[in-house]
Design brief:
This protein is of the alpha+beta class. Among the domains are: 60 residues, Winged helix-like DNA-binding domain superfamily/Winged helix DNA-binding domain (Arc Repressor Mutant, subunit A, Orthogonal Bundle); 74 residues, SH3 type barrels (Roll). It has eight helices and eight strands; from the N terminus they run αααββαααββαβββαβ. The strands form two sheets. It has a six-stranded antiparallel sheet. A two-stranded antiparallel ribbon has the order 1-2. Strand 5 and strand 6 form a beta hairpin. The longest helix has 23 residues. The N and C termini lie far apart (43 Å). The mean pLDDT is 96.
């Protein structure tokens, strides 16, 4: 059993480690959580004693095998909750993160098993992110960023990364959602913006800040 604060640290470590070959600096963790470094260091020592984190002074942090599994299962609860809120309760994909942040700390495997069953055992959440299985295993798919595509490519939106409520509201305003098929009409070399066309939109200009946060498949 872990406290809400400990779970938040483990989850943050897990997510940050995905882009850094499993390693995370105390400084990066401190910035991500907006918590002072001495406090973060103290928590890392505490989690290391519990066997959740590999910690040595002045060296990158790394989740242990058990810490990795615990963190993945917290993320599983979060993403299942987001999917349930969208699919069963009618929330918008921009509304569910904060609610899921609270529900993910419920200590009831039966509760989340029932949620999973009611949803038909989904593999992705409303933003296209993979949902870890009940053993903490996560299936990654080979998606590419929209910004890496070329003029003339026809692609399907499969996931959104680095999500925020404001960004998701922006996508809603452009009628961009998962599963949308679009064609890349042209690229602007100066600012790397992109002109795309899709249902109801013949020449929509998307900035680099948008295209680098949309994952697609050809």
């Amino acid at each position: 059993m872990y406290s809400l604060v400990e779970e938040n640290y483990l989850k943050a470590l897990y997510l940050l480690s995905l882009d850094n070959d499993g390693e995370v600096s105390v400084n990066d963790l401190s910035k991500h959580l907006d918590i002072k470094m001495p406090t973060v260091t103290s928590m890392m020592k505490k989690l290391a004693k519990k066997g959740m984190v590999q910690y040595e002074s002045y060296k990158p942090l790394r989740l242990s095998e058990e810490g990795h599994k615990v963190a993945a299962l917290i993320i599983r609860k979060h993403r299942l909750t987001e999917m349930y809120l969208v699919e069963k309760m009618g929330f918008g994909w921009e509304e569910v993160h904060d609610i899921a942040e609270q529900i993910e700390h419920i200590q009831s495997p039966a509760f989340f098993a029932k949620m999973d069953a009611l949803l038909g055992h989904p593999e992705i959440d409303p933003h296209g992110s993979p949902i870890p299985d009940k053993n903490g295993k996560m299936m990654w798919r080979d998606y590419i960023k929209l910004c890496d595509c070329r003029s003339g490519d026809e692609v399907k939106i499969t996931a959104v990364i680095n999500t925020s409520d404001d960004f998701l509201k922006f996508l809603n305003g452009k009628a961009i959602s998962l599963g949308l098929r679009l064609r890349i009409e042209s690229l602007e070399p100066f600012d790397e913006s992109m002109v795309v066309s899709y249902k109801g939109h013949k020449a929509e200009t998307l900035s680099k800040a948008v295209t680098e946060r949309l994952l697609v498949e050809l």
